[in-house]
Amino acid sequence: MRGDWAGYYATLAKTRLYFQVHRDKVDADPDFYYPHDAHDPRTGARWRVVFTDGMLPAPQPDLVFAQVSLFWLSGDWNAHRPPTLVINPGSPSEAVLPYGPPHSTEWSQIAQRLGDQSFGMRLRGLAIGGVLHGPVAHGLACGALLCVNNGSLWNTLAWHGSGYQGERTRLREWWGITTREQWQHHLRSLLACEASSPVWEFALRLRRSIARDFGGHVDVGYWRQAVGDVLRGRPEGSVVLTPEGVSKTEPRSGPAIDAQIEGVQRLIGRITRYEARMRADGVLDENRYVTSVDAWDLGRASKMARWGLGARFGTMQEAEAAVVQAGRTASLSYRSWQDFSAGYILGRCLHFDDEEFGDWYETMASAHRILMSDPGSPWLNLPFQ
Question: Whole-model pTM above 0.85?
Fold first, then answer.
């Protein structure tokens, strides 16, 4: 509006951009983009329509988009490209730009100078068109740690994420998901809090039980000893660990159960060291501990629902139902966003970090601090229960 085109181009350079691609061609050859270019309704000339992520239409089965950057667009030109780019047509931020060889236009010069920008580690949400209140917003906010870490919109259910190819690549490489049925299986497992190791929840559940019986603080030595008592079993039989979770069985002894007890006791050491670090970093308050790692599954379920939609393995209705279920289950398992966050971070670290306190921990601790301090954070504006 004020004619600051250099500022406009610099803003575009820091923003995810999307253009429509032919789904059938991409499915046949996912390593290449196959742009679905449109035509200027006034002149009939071919142009490429580019959207920012807040202006994308809702996902539809055959309406799919590639995610790129302004830097990528500036270097992708060839003689077969349309002569014009139109950004967010029909909106207040619409711009019609000439598309030519690199460095031949002002916008491409700025894009080349700024290079590929990082989209990560910031809180982003839609003030208009995003979900800000109610059960859907609560469920979406359960995935906010990952959204902040990736710089993606926390409150949009109409998810495009990293584009159709990007979301399919994410699910294939990180989860082994290549079909709708596999996506449904993983989503069900996450919503049921069955995707993580049952050993983690067994150890934490035992501490919760001790704390309830003895009025709060749990001595680590007593907790370790209780593991042996429970897993060996009393003469009348007791609760033990199985591949399916926790069940009742007869008393046991021998090298196998001794090894199992030793393993859980080592796990207790890992848990307490992570909790000490989280207290030092302000993720956990003093004298607080993690009650459950269900948040690790539920936070990922909130995102899995959206990833599946972006990859067109699921529908908007399925994504919404899953997001609401994730939020409802979380509100039954935790008392606050801070408790939920600590459970998520501990689960992530037990799965990935191996006590290195590296990026798997640091990025989530940084995202936690943003979500607990930014005035626009859903964790400050949505009641947890």
Answer: yes
